[in-house]
Amino acid sequence: MEFDGSDEHAPFSGAYTRAAETARLEGSKTWRAARFTLKGARFTNGQNRGADFRLVVEAPEFAVGRMTLLR
User: Fold this and answer.
1) What does the pLDDT look like over 54-63, one tens digit per residue?
2) For residues 4 and 44, what is the distance between their CA atoms, to the nearest angstrom?
3) Which of 13, 31, 38, 61 has the most other CB atoms within 10 Å of its CB?
């Protein structure tokens, strides 16, 4: 998960800050849950096309069933 962070000294002023947590995809083809804590998120639409966060996936197949953002 990359999010629009608040570190002004990071590349692109922190717009592509990576969350500390990762989720491993193990090929089980079953639904799994993952939780990411976005410390220092600012959500000012700093990513491409005005996005605030994005998933970074390295897998040939991937599906998202639901995503929830909590404050």
Assistant:
1) 999 988 888 9
2) 7
3) 38
Report the SS3 class of residue 13: helix
Q: What is the pTM (predicted TM-score) of this model? A: 0.84
- Please count the CA atoms within 13 angstroms of the CA of 40 that sit on its side-chain side: 16
CA 34 to each of CA 6, 19, 45, 49, 59: distance values in angstroms, whole numbers, following the listed order:
23, 12, 23, 25, 16
Rounded distance between C-alpha atoms, residue 27 and residue 7, angstroms: 35
Instruction: Give how far the C-alpha of residue 40 lies from the chain's centroid of Cα atoms, to the nearest Å.
Output: 13
